[in-house]
């Protein structure tokens, strides 16, 4: 039985991905893993953008364009994030987030 | 000449003021030149005053209309202040008396202050004092008078503390200044109230407006003004309870005591009340206050004077007592008698102070009368002039004091103040007693072998002789049979007191009794054993009197416990409430809150992210479960 894939399916997928990503951001101890999870959340948003664009305003490409923007920004952000993590690793020899609490006070 | 003096009366205060400036800026390095400048200033002022007084007292028009020369001092909407000079019988008499007594005292001071390192400075101060006092006497405006009033207070401070190497002199100067300042505050409030209510401080305008005060204010306000104004004279004239500074002021050089604290400055209070008589006249309650204050002070100070040992201190209490008489006379409504006593008192009290100065000069500042004795043999001029002063103050006719004191007693009796009359009469007895106690102890009896007295130089004894002559004849201007005085110096209408022979005889008998008692106790009884026995027998009374009713101690106690206690209370309030609770408390509270909040600041990014997430979740839940109004409340403006 083949059912058509509706907007709701995309949104559920997006929500699941976002949830997984959020969980990872909040719970993972490895900084690299947290970075990956942030990517997951961004991509969940991208799916939403593209899907909503496709179903609600098919004549316009706003959503798609936004998705491309997000991918570009995400690439830059990952670059900066990785650079920070490498710098921290060089100083502390650790990527465990529990060791990084110098932002307090 | 007389016309010139009448129209240039402003020269009277100006000449000594110029002398002051000249001494301070130019002649200070040359003591004798400074002294001559000062004497020239005051004598010039005396000549102008005498001519002006002659002009006033030969022209009856002055009784009705004073001669006023004024210039505008400053002017702003609703406030115009003039300064000027006002010549009428009262001010003419006052400038004449002040400049005459001051001239004699200045001359005396040349001898007394000889070899003093501060000779020039002394003469500059007394010149400034004379200028201020004459300005006070001749002012046409109460504000101008107040300025002069403060200036004499300043000079008094400078001159009491003249021997500034002595701690007692410095303390006395401060005491005088502060005590007078307390009183002047009342006076200032009174003047401000008058300016506010009547819109002027000009004496002539005020006298017209206050006569119809109902148009401007109520009786209650007027009473308040009169009482406030009277506080000033209480301080300046050494009336109870602010008399405490006057005896201490004897720390100053003796010419100062004679000039300021006997003849002129301390009677400024009497003069002020006399000048504002139009105010007091409308307020019978204030008049009663003046009379009671005066009568009480007269008796109170006389009782203290009985037991004192220092020659100048006795005279100081005598001054307080005599000014009490003047206030009493003012209070019972006789400006004539009051100013008459002021006039005669200036002569005999200046005489006695200068005599005391001559004694101190001879004995090298040994002040205790019990250590003196027999001085009249070595110092005949000082001694006999002092005796004349003693007769005058005791009220033995025909000396000056008799006429004025008799008139005060007569008007007190006539006005129906019987209690005050009895007090005043008893004071007359006490006055004769303590003054002759002083005279017998100082000038008669056994000589103290330790003393080597010598008569003072002529520059000091000649003023004594001059004042002795004035003390003898000065009262003849106002005898009941030839009342020239009351024809000129009066408030409202001239008031002739009928010669009251009972009062006259009574006052002479009282004075004679006082002198006789002093004679018995301190002259006949060579060993003074009876006097000592009396003091022994009534030891507690003697102690109270000797310690001046402990007024100083009461003030000290009051200051140390009440004032300092209140200060300590406020200090603690400041430390613990203002600083402790409000200032530091708020700071500490902020710190504590910070400490508390800082715990939540873990530094772990994931904790922060969790909080973000929970916050967003909370907003979403809220939006989901409430209506759009709550949404707009949170998001702001979005509908």
H/E topology pattern of chain A: HHH
Which radius of gyration of chain A do the C-alpha atoms yield?
A: 17 Å
What is the tally of helical segments of chain A? 3
Q: Which segments of chain B are poorly predicted (pLDDT under 50) over 5 or more consecutive residues?
A: none
CATH C-level class of chain A is: Mainly Alpha
Strand content of chain A: under 5%
The count of β-strands of chain B is 2
Domain NADH-Ubiquinone oxidoreductase (complex I) chain 5 N-terminal (chain B): 73-123
Subcellular location (chain B): Endomembrane system; Membrane
Main location (chain B): membrane
Membrane topology (chain B): Multi-pass membrane protein
Walkthrough of the structure:
Chain B: It is a multi-pass membrane protein. Chain B: This is NADH-quinone oxidoreductase subunit L. Chain B: One of its GO terms (molecular function) is NADH dehydrogenase (ubiquinone) activity. The complex is a heterodimer of chains A (105) and B (639). Chain A has 105 residues and is an all-alpha fold. Chain A has a single domain, classed as Helix Hairpins (Orthogonal Bundle). In chain A, 74% of the residues lie in helices and 0% in strands. Chain A has helices at residues 7-27, 31-56, 62-92. The radius of gyration of chain A is 17 Å and the shape is elongated. With 639 residues, chain B is an all-alpha fold. Chain B has 4 domains: 1-140; 141-546, no CATH class; 549-601; 605-639. Chain B is 75% helix and 3% strand. Chain B contains 29 helices and 2 strands. A two-stranded antiparallel sheet of chain B has the order 1-2. In chain B, strand 1 and strand 2 (79-87) form a beta hairpin. In chain B, helix 3 (31-57) packs antiparallel against helix 5 (89-112), helix 8 runs antiparallel to helix 10 and helix 17 runs antiparallel to helix 20. Chain B is elongated. The A-B interface holds A 22, 25-27, 34, 97-98, 100-105 and B 598, 601-606, 609-610, 613.
Give a short summary of the structure.
The complex is a heterodimer of chains A (105) and B (639). With 105 residues, chain A is an all-alpha fold.
